[in-house]
Amino acid sequence: MVWRVLLTVVVVIGSAFGAFYAWAWNSEIPPTNAPATLFDPGIVAKGAQLAAVGNCGICHTQAGAKPYAGGFPVQTPFGTIYGTNITPDPDTGIGSWSETAFRRALHEGVDRTGNHLYPAFPYDHFTHATDSDIGALYAFLMTREPVAKANRAPAVPFPLNVRLFAAGWKLLFLHKGQIPPDASKSAEWNRGAYLAESLGHCGACHTPRNVLGGEKRDGQFAGGQSEGWLAPALNAASPAPVSWTAEQVYAYLRNGFAKQHGLAAGPMQPVVRNLKKASDADLRAIATYVASFAGLQNDADREQETQKALDFARSRDSKVPMPPSGAITTSTRADAKPGRTNNDSAAPSGAVIFVGACASCHHSGGELPVSRPIELGLSTPVNAPDPAALLRIVLDGIHPSSGERGPIMPGFSRALTDPQITALVSHVRSQFSRQPAWPNIAAALTKVRQNKEPATEAP
Amino acid sequence: MTVLNVNGQQHRIDVDPRTPLLYVLRNELKLNAAKFGCGLGQCGACTVLVDHEPVFSCILPISVLEGRYIRTVEGLGSEGRPGPVQSAFIEEQAAQCGYCIPGMMMRAQGLLEHNASPSDAQIRDAMAPNLCRCGTQMRILRAVRRAAKAMMADAGTIQETAK
After folding, report:
1. Of A307, A384, B89, B124, which residue is most buried, by most CB within 10 angstroms?
2. Which of the listed CATH numbers 1.10.10, 1.10.3470, 1.10.760, 2.90.10 matches domain A187-291?
């Protein structure tokens, strides 16, 4: 009897695994030689715009190396996966892939030879892309410069390095098929939904993930993490004091800057750089879609809230004492010690540090030669639920991509000590945000200091 | 009263603790090597070393500097006895108008104290925050390479003598 039960269990498990394996098994798609067809330049141009929307270039390009030749380290909680070579090099790139193989990779997360791909390649989004868009992307990639550069093996620990695990992941989180249009919404909104949910894969960073790394379906755009940065919520939970409008999202995506929100930093900076090649119409559509998730949709409410946020930000800004202008205050002056901390305390207060280190740029009423920082009261990192993003900016500053123009802020990681940065960030929060104080800035700082930016190391 | 250690000397400074270091160096201590360029931490003309790290002195209030070790070009050597970085900048004639050079020298000094033989890429990366409007960057890069060699040679000589 016991044997029969055991045998049954073994057979059931065995057949289940067999069925799973059969389901998970994918055949190799035979290699093609260099594509026989000459691609239509119009299709290639469309593919270029879609590649910009999809930001393919970021994960498939290593810093300082040739575009699309792979090597960028994508850091996930499960290990580091290196973007692959997607140039048309036949040996190391995808030169031997037919369009069918390329489409299968995007729709099903399977490479040409039949291996399951890790979901660091966001095929849970790309699966929604239309065949014709994928064809255009294929035409674009197949007309890039072929680069011979071997792919780097993923640094993923056992048992996750067994690729069949990715098949199990797909069973849970890969929902194939087109996105059904919403007839109650405008054509522009529907276009935006398609782009944002498929190639744009906004949710890959801006939607929280569960323990298995799948996007939480009930938490769309509720905010996530990317490369140690906060990817802020884009829905009603957004920490931005001003509720985003489509116009503001468009300005942010087009120029990397929205007047009432600030600039794209961290991993969003290269996204905006890539989007330069996306069409205006597509960016406006994405903006329309994304802004439809924002907390306030009624113009009157939004204007009222915006005015409140602006008034608060400006009132707090004007309370910041100005640094001494020009000549130094000396002991002979009667008003020599206006900002002095009590009892000559060894640890200067955050307010004192702010005036000496930050106020020369971050005060209201002054125009900088190149750009004017937004009121800190409107800043998303200053109003965020945790201080990680603000700490990251204070430590590393803001720098335009190499060779590009853009706003700049020096980092203070070496100039200020940890207690000084903690005091400064605590002051900035209490001075410029209506949100409650962050409870443990010092611990967050230690964590941010440990979590360095991905190094541009050579393989 | 703020006590600052500049080039190994203690200074008791009675100015507003919010005052950026640059103004104190130039106006109070008459150490005029560090320059005011932009006042926003964007050009590097004011660069000095604090605890061996290059920092922008125009945006660093003196209140955060108590107990820390500040160095300026005046601490690298004198006109009669220039230090290796200063000598290298003179020999390569790295200065044209010269305004950025004190900051460049301090940033180079900071780099070479952390990395005795930096690669060209590391030198470019380290020097990137400091701007030169004249266009002598190639000579500045040569000067940094020369300074690295000179400092290595000096270290070798010291080791030889110690034997």
Report:
1. B89
2. 1.10.760
